[in-house]
Design goal:
Blueprint: E1 6-13, E2 17-18, H1 28-43, E3 52-56, H2 68-75, E4 84-87, H3 93-107, E5 112-120, H4 138-144, H5 151-161, H6 166-185, E6 196-197, E7 202-203, H7 215-218, E8 240-250, H8 251-256, E9 263-272, H9 282-293, E10 302-305, H10 311-320, H11 333-336, H12 340-358, E11 362-369, E12 373-381
Parallel strand pairs: 3-4, 3-5, 10-11
Antiparallel strand pairs: 1-8, 1-9, 2-8, 5-8, 6-7, 9-12, 11-12
Helix pairs in contact: 1-2, 3-12, 9-10
């Protein structure tokens, strides 16, 4: 293993809070600080050795304005000398943070970096930054012949293009809840979740899960974006609160610190795709990553494809020919939520822990992103 490999030595997350739920009163800076403190507690490193903190956050307004990552460093009690940057690549923000931190470590610019993200969607609502101004510009709308760009409309387009029926989407959504429930019940998330002290109680478990969800129950929900549509609240991701982060360093530094890495960040890709359909980017991002690494989809033992809407992972499965049993094996955002800026790091944390638990060599994550971009990242388990 090259000394300039980027390896993850620790990965943690908060439990995911539902909208206006257990984490609604916790400031995004304080949620983030919990992650930073836990990474230091688990690794025993001096936080002053961290070269940079790269932190994803999407709706950078109000509580989440003014470089959330930097103020998380200060809230965590880390030295003033530790810098931080807050990244916005829409829903892939913290996945991009992980990749950017890995790039810096591999290049030799950093020896130790922390990457992750946060989103408090209860306190800073989705779309709050778009309530004033004109976010896209008329030239873009004219280029594509649209009045606006909407993810829900894009999800409907994907369902139509790939011939996905409402029943198929609802079957998938129900399965996400079943998988997440099974993972929670067997303790699959226990070691990765840090307890959040709420004063009157300790919050430890993802709370968006709806046990007993069935396709028949989902069939009673009204479409959200078109009267004759197939997308509704039950087969789309949940509005949520949460934070997650990973510690990345060179393998040489990990050895010097007597830390056992969990996984190596093998490669990553980022692509742009149709901004109107918007959510298909994980398909070419994965294709690009596989071509770059020389692997086939059959070489990948576990895959986290963010469940922004049920058509996203289903269309991805069809195009890539992936084994459905390997895709989102512990449930996903439909079941437990999608705190935007944290989701990339949450997926990474779930994935590499699942790889370690099951002895899976390669794992892949990909995330669709507003505007039609997508990241894909490949991890290799370190025995």
């Amino acid at each position: 293993m090259s000394s300039r490999d980027a390896v993850i030595v620790e990965a943690v997350r908060t439990p995911i809070g539902k909208r206006n739920g257990s984490l609604a009163e916790v400031h995004a800076v304080d949620l983030s600080a919990l992650i930073l403190r836990e990474l230091v507690a688990r690794t025993g490193i001096d936080p002053g050795e961290v070269d940079d903190v790269m932190w994803g956050c999407v709706t950078q307004l109000g509580d989440q304005s003014s470089n959330v990552g930097r103020f998380a460093v200060l809230a965590a009690g880390w030295p003033d000398s530790v810098p931080a940057v807050t990244i916005n690549r829409a829903c892939g923000s913290s996945q991009q943070a992980i990749e950017s931190a890995a790039h810096a470590v591999i290049a030799g610019a950093y020896e130790i970096a922390v990457a992750g993200g946060v989103e408090s969607m209860s306190r800073v609502p989705l779309g709050a930054t778009r309530q004033s101004g004109f976010p896209y510009g008329q030239s873009v709308l004219d280029r594509y012949g649209v009045d606006g760009l909407d993810q829900g409309a894009g999800a409907e387009m994907i369902a139509g293009k790939w011939g996905l029926s409402r029943r198929q989407l609802d079957d998938y959504a129900s399965g996400s809840h079943e998988l997440a429930a099974a993972a929670i019940d067997r303790g699959a998330f226990d070691s990765q979740i840090i307890a959040v002290d709420l004063g009157d109680r300790i919050f430890t478990t993802d709370e968006g899960l709806r046990r007993g969800t069935t396709p028949e129950k989902l069939a009673t929900l009204k479409p959200s974006f078109r009267a004759d549509g197939v997308i509704h609240a039950g087969n789309a991701s949940q509005i949520s609160d949460g934070a997650a982060g990973v510690m990345i360093m060179t393998s040489q530094r990990a050895s010097e610190l007597r830390l056992r890495p969990i996984a190596r960040i093998v490669a990553g890709s980022v692509v742009g795709d149709d901004p109107v359909m918007m959510l298909t980017g994980p398909i070419p991002a994965t294709q690009k990553l596989l071509a770059r690494t020389g692997l086939s989809i059959d070489d990948i033992g576990a895959m986290e494809i963010n469940e922004a809407f049920a058509p996203v992972p289903l269309a991805w499965q069809i195009e890539l020919g992936a084994d459905p049993d390997r895709v989102n094996p512990v449930g996903g955002a439909i079941a437990v939520g999608h705190p935007l800026g944290a989701s990339g790091a949450i997926l990474a944390t779930r994935l590499i822990n699942h790889m370690r638990d099951r002895g899976i060599r390669y794992g892949l994550q990909s995330m669709c992103e507003g505007g039609g971009t997508a990241n894909a990242t490949l991890y290799e388990l370190i025995d």
